[in-house]
Amino acid sequence: MVARNMESFHILVIFVLILTITTAAVGLFVHTPHPVTNATNSYGQGMVAYGYGIYAHDDAFKAPIFRGTDLTMLVLVIPTTIMVLVNDMKKTSNSRRLFLTSLMGVFLYYAISMSFGVIANAMLLVYIALVSASFFALILGIPSVGDGTWKDTVTATMDRKGTRIFLVLSSIALVVAWLPDIVAALISRGPLATLGVYTTEITYVLDMAIIAPACLMCLNGLSNRKHYVVMVLSLLFTLCVTIGIMVPIQSVFQYLDGIVFPLPVMLTKVLSFCVLAFFAAFFEVRLLKAAEKRISM
Fold first, then answer.
1. What is the pTM of this model?
2. Which of 72, 22, 41 is nearest to 253 (CA)?
3. Cα-Cα-Cα-Cα dihedral sign, residues 74, 274, 186, 59
4. Angle at 190 between CA 196 and CA 115, to 5 degrees
5. Per-residue model confidence as pLDDT tens digits over 99-118
6. What are phi and psi of 33, to 5 degrees?
7. Measured between alpha carbons, how far is 90 from 147 in angstroms, rounded to an integer?
8. What's the Rg (C-alpha) of the chain?
9. Which of 65, 39, 66, 61 is nearest to 50 (CA)?
10. Are 138 and 101 in contact (CB under 8 A)?
């Protein structure tokens, strides 16, 4: 039964890779001009359409962000996942399975962001399939990591002052990064400054409603040596590293399209994510080393 679940998990991971390669490659490399019409939202704000590629009808401010995300998936997340998958299929271990499952969390974050954050386009069905595949890959991957005394070792290793400080700062950083935009909109009784023709900011929802509380939840899990904290920590660290690399790449794409941010914005919203990513990588390596143990099949 366990071996069958492992096979199903690996098949889903491969399916996730194929779908993501498709969406990211189309988003990044298909850049032909399209005739588009600038739109106005229900607040009376005008939106300048991007006019190129699969994101032609998206806001000119948002489309470079999507393309930067696609590049990050293609050059970082996908190659890393392929490498871990191949090694896990050859010889499985707690650390490989844990890391591979955590990567599925990154793919799910990407899939949800594209499905809910991009104006409907020709890739919509692929986005939907990717949400499904990455979600169920994550569901299958979590129990496949297994249980046992090794998780006690991991929680003991990670229950340190540095980890706790990182979790608190990460949750605060995610709120501080996005909350001012929301508060400013509420005070002015208008839309979010960069809302365009979208209904909401899906990144705000994911970061403030799920990731930030998950960081705080891990504090309690570490104190009580709960086994679930091993999986959640790995997910958070892996996602934080990915976002920390992704945000500067997105900013470069925006700069190339003529969107330049003031220095204070760059420092708060770019540099802060980079610093958090550096420490997240350190903690993830420590966690995976502590988790290294042969899984009994």
1. 0.91
2. 72
3. negative
4. 35
5. 999 999 999 999 999 999 99
6. -70, 145
7. 21
8. 20
9. 61
10. yes
Here the tokens at position 16 are: 């996730």
Which tokens go with 158? 């990670």
Exposure class string for 48-61: b at 16+ Cβ within 10 A, else e: ebbbbbbbbbbbbb
Please tell me whether residue 51 adopts helix, strand or coil conformation. Answer: coil
99/73 Cα distance (integer angstroms): 16
Q: Which residues of the chain have pLDDT under 50?
A: 1, 294-297
- DSSP of 230-276: HHHHHHHHHHHHHHHHHHHHHHHHHHHTT----HHHHIIIIIHHHHH
Q: What is the DSSP letter of 176?
A: H
Span 203-258, pLDDT tens digits: 889 999 999 999 999 988 888 888 888 999 999 999 999 999 999 999 999 989 88
Q: What angle is formed at CA 135 by the lines to CA 130 and CA 138, rounded to 5 degrees?
A: 125
